[in-house]
Amino acid sequence: MNLEALINQHYSELNENDLHIVQYMMQHKESVKQMTITMLAKETLTSKSSVLRLTKKLGFSGFSEFKYALKDNDISNSLPATSFSSMQAIDLNGTAKLFNQQQIRPIIEHFHSAKNIYCYGTGWGQRTVLKNFNRGMIDLKKFPLLLESLSEFKVIVQRAVQPDDLVIIVSLSGDIKQTEQVTRLLKMKNIPILSITNLSNNVLASMATYNLYFQSTPVNYMGEDMYSLLPIFQLMDSLRREYVDYLMELDESN
What we know:
CATH class of the largest domain: Alpha Beta
Organism: Marinilactibacillus psychrotolerans
Pfam families: HTH_6, SIS
Helix content: 40-55%
Shape: globular
Number of helices: 13
Strand content: 5-15%
InterPro entries: Homeodomain-like_sf (IPR009057), HTH_RpiR (IPR000281), RpiR-like (IPR047640), RpiR-like_SIS (IPR035472), SIS_dom (IPR001347), SIS_dom_sf (IPR046348), WH-like_DNA-bd_sf (IPR036388)
Largest sheet: 5 strands, parallel
Domain HTH rpiR-type: 1-77
Number of strands: 7
Oligomer: single chain
Number of domains: 2
Distance between the termini: 36 Å
CATH superfamily of the largest domain: Glucose-6-phosphate isomerase like protein, domain 1
GO molecular function, one term: carbohydrate derivative binding
Strand order of the largest sheet: 2-1-3-4-5
Radius of gyration: 19 Å
């Protein structure tokens, strides 16, 4: 289990009190693993019943099961890397674990059945990843359309995208300030969205129909956060491989 992924999955069910507890848990994950329900309620200035209701909204029978899952399956690495280069193996391993934890089959089935697939990356690096992914789809007779700019994205959503299509949005942070209006329009038009974002509690993932996560740990250099795009390439390659396996299964059944 990953706490951020669970929160994104159930975000629409959470009230203001739930989000207050969630914020504390995200900021103190290691401490929460050792807490009793009474201790967590005290630290968040809430009640045991509030904590219990939250864990049930997240899909657990109670706080004990939630805490066990948090201890047993949290993919976060407790030993931080000492350099940007040494983070590479940690991020790639984390991305692989995240992918294996997701329900991939519904995504693959929707990808296969979608009449049209539109792809948008919130930055040039993300668009480079999508270009590479789309080239890999040609041999599979699948032709996603890459939207090169925000203005093109807006026009396509307003005039062309239909509920039997699929929109893939790749973002490093999941911050949708620039694309919030068009993303909300997708939701209003009931257009399926596959969000691909860094592992965090983010607005884009909470609004999407499907979520896939990668792990890319930034380092701050000269006041700027630097990320590696390699985990995104890895995730998209994993998605392509799953689709190839799916097509082979279909061929065998026919």
